Fold this sequence. Notes:
alpha+beta, Uridine Diphospho-n-acetylenolpyruvylglucosamine Reductase, domain 3, 16 helices, Uridine Diphospho-n-acetylenolpyruvylglucosamine Reductase, domain 2, Vanillyl-alcohol Oxidase, Chain A, domain 3, disordered N terminus, binds flavin-adenine dinucleotide, four-stranded mixed sheet
Amino acid sequence: YKFIQSPMDFGPLNFLQTTNTASLDFGRILFNSPSAVLRPQSPRDISLLLSFLSASSYSKVTVAARGAGHSIYGQAQALDGIVIEMDSIPSNVVIREKGEDEAGFSYADVSGGALWIELLEESLKFGLAPRSWTDYLYLSIGGTLSNGGISGQTFKYGPQISNVLQLEVVTGKGEVVTCSPNKSSDLFYAVLGGLGQFGIITSARILLQEAPHKVRWVRAFYEDFSTFISDQELLVSMPNLVDYVEGFIVLNEQSLHSASIAFPAHLDFIHKFQSKGSSSKVYYCVEFAVHDYQTKGTDVEQVVEEISRLLSYLPSHIYSVEVSYFDFLNRVRMEEMSLRGRGLWDVPHPWLNMFVPKSGIKEFRDLLMENISSDDFEGPLLIYPLIRDKWDMNMSVVLPEAVREQVVYVVGVLRSASPASCSTHCLNNLLHRHRHVAETASRPHIGGKQYLAHHPSTAHWQDHFGPRWDQFKARKSRFDPLSILAPGHGIFPRLYAPSH
Ligand SMILES: Cc1cc2nc3c(=O)[nH]c(=O)nc-3n(C[C@H](O)[C@H](O)[C@H](O)COP(=O)(O)OP(=O)(O)OC[C@H]3O[C@@H](n4cnc5c(N)ncnc54)[C@H](O)[C@@H]3O)c2cc1C
């Protein structure tokens, strides 16, 4: 590409041949090299590049925005294309408190490449914070808004994409558009959960609320899966009392230990794994939290007790701790540090994330258990319910089609495959098994859909979107007609006129 070989031909943009990060992501499974890397200084640089590329039907060049690169399957990579590293634009976080303008609530304007941790740190200075989170905060705003952004608050406030007031987007045609539910709303809804297909988010306006000082964080253990999920469903039916609900499957002692690094309580039932003498024994852990605003007249411990009385956990297997709100939200950072210290963070991560309707969750659990072995599983296995009504189905995000079911589970098989214990053959075998689980679970008897999906062909993507495919495709032709953007998903082939 001429303009890459001689950047002077291409106005003010300087390209790098590559960087250490452009072909790397958290998955460490795919390593597609781009032809060039752009480290923009402003949204205008991005607009210049996309305007240029979209004006020539002879160019084959694709473009991927890279936020924090925490994708699993090369979604932010661009084989032989251009990677735009969003972290080169200085992070900008502007907080507007309620009453400062006519909005009637507090919000933050934050750049698309900024990390959620940066937004948290800045907003806490004002006693404010976003309402909806991901478990890990070193992810970019643009990266999670392109997917959904879910965590234990999602049942209450919806995913992160349901908490956005406005976006600034550079479309695949290079146009810089400010969009919201009232202004260029088609682009707004397309981009949220849109897998980076329609434009690059350069700024987002995120709703804020008063931040609690502390959090009461509770874990309760179960032997029986049905009791475990019915208690989770009970918790998400009480949004007035409960602020966070998650849960995980405890496959072995090691998985309990690794899930407990940030949880400052001694979980003294580890001996049970041993005393049973059987490696197939699994436990389930419900995790919930109640915010503590330290206001007079409310006793958070009492609220927690009241909630706990309604639950049917194993007698005396409940643990409750108090942590600061910041530490609670940043809990996965502690796990990261521990894993980094043991050389277990920068390893392949063959993850599988699925949304499963309530009616299929027991069958899905059985399918999963048939396909993972509790002896060698490393990493968390998350499972918790979400409420469908909190999602806006005009956005591009995909949920299971069983529309009458309010409760949808998210299941995260967040597996690490350290090369020391899992060879390339072993990794391929895990990937193969996950694909089998995903494909089986997508059939109507379970009716699941992948979250952070990875599919091998356009036809698979068409199945993934189901009845919503036509809308997704129409939005693509409108906002990125040559399919320049986010090639790493493999949804749309790049369109160009071959020059014989
Ligand atoms: C340790 C860890 C924990 C996680 N926890 C959660 C969790 O709790 N909940 C959850 O929902 N997800 C979670 N995720 C998944 C995470 O939300 C997604 O992988 C997300 O894409 C990561 O953001 P990123 O900035 O690293 O994106 P990248 O990997 O950089 O990009 C992801 C996709 O978005 C596109 N993109 C990136 N920036 C932009 C932009 N500014 N505009 C438009 N498109 C863009 C890319 O082209 C790519 O297609 C986790 C991931 C990891 C590794």
